[in-house]
Amino acid sequence: MPNIHPYKDEFYVCTPIKIESDKNFYIVGFEPNATMNVAHHMLLFGCSTPGTDQEYWDCGEMAESDSDGRLQKATPCGSGNHVIYAWARNAKPLKLPEDVGFLVGKDTPIKYLVLQIHYTKKFPEGQTDSSGLFLLYTQRPQSKLAAVLLLAAGGRIPPKTITHMDIECKINENKVIYPFAYRIHTHSLGKRDPLTPEMFYPVFDTTPIKYGDKIAARCTMDSSSRNRVTEVGPTNNDEMCNFYLMYYVDHGTPLEMLSCYDMGPPNYFWENDQLNNIPSAEASSLYK
């Protein structure tokens, strides 16, 4: 970030870099330059065009659409939105497997990289921040192209309950993808320990996913100590259920499908569809 001053709570800000248009680059690793006491989370987008031509802008996608007049407001990408990487809670650097890389530049729709940072608290007057990411890249062609598939749930969580937020999407492209890492993002109600790093972890099962297969994700939310309904939204008072699946293809290009969404509770649950290979009950219950 170019010495940003977060002047309000729940501030989302984006800044772009343009990729050399006549060259291909393969991103093979990510090294965060941020700490959780400053930045709530970071997202790296690959874009065909950025949200604006400004050096930085207000880019809270889920926040209210009206600008406060201090910064131009726009989404991270003007067109061609690809999630490449996500970071939160002091997650460690990520190195991709051998011969795997995110292709950007000349022969792809990704012509810009846009970094989004979410600051939950405004800074004191005069204090700025330059958090960001170091990218490890090469121009040596990688034989396996990487991508990220985002699964996200909407909906609302009633008070005093254990609620499942379920997502399911079907692969409708004649391609085989090989998952190698995953990341989950929730706020304070999620099952996972909220104090552990929100990083990409190796998958437990590397079975290839092919045409006709269904990918499903679930967030188990505990609102037993909350007296109000919790909506899906961008602030710490809201919740999120985002599952990022990082994968590669060993020939051709990654999926055209970049994300899939379900309405979430109370409108959608896994029981609405016929799914195989459902995890054990322990995976959907809270740790004791």
TrEMBL record:
Cellular localisation: Secreted
Disulfide bond entries: C14-C59, C47-C77, C169-C260, C219-C241
Enzyme Commission number: 1.14.17.3
Principal localisation: secreted
Annotated ranges, domain Copper type II ascorbate-dependent monooxygenase N-terminal: 2-121
Keywords: Copper, Disulfide bond, Glycoprotein, Metal-binding, Monooxygenase, Oxidoreductase, Secreted, Signal, Zinc
Protein's name in the database: peptidylglycine monooxygenase
Species of the source: Rhynchophorus ferrugineus (Red palm weevil)
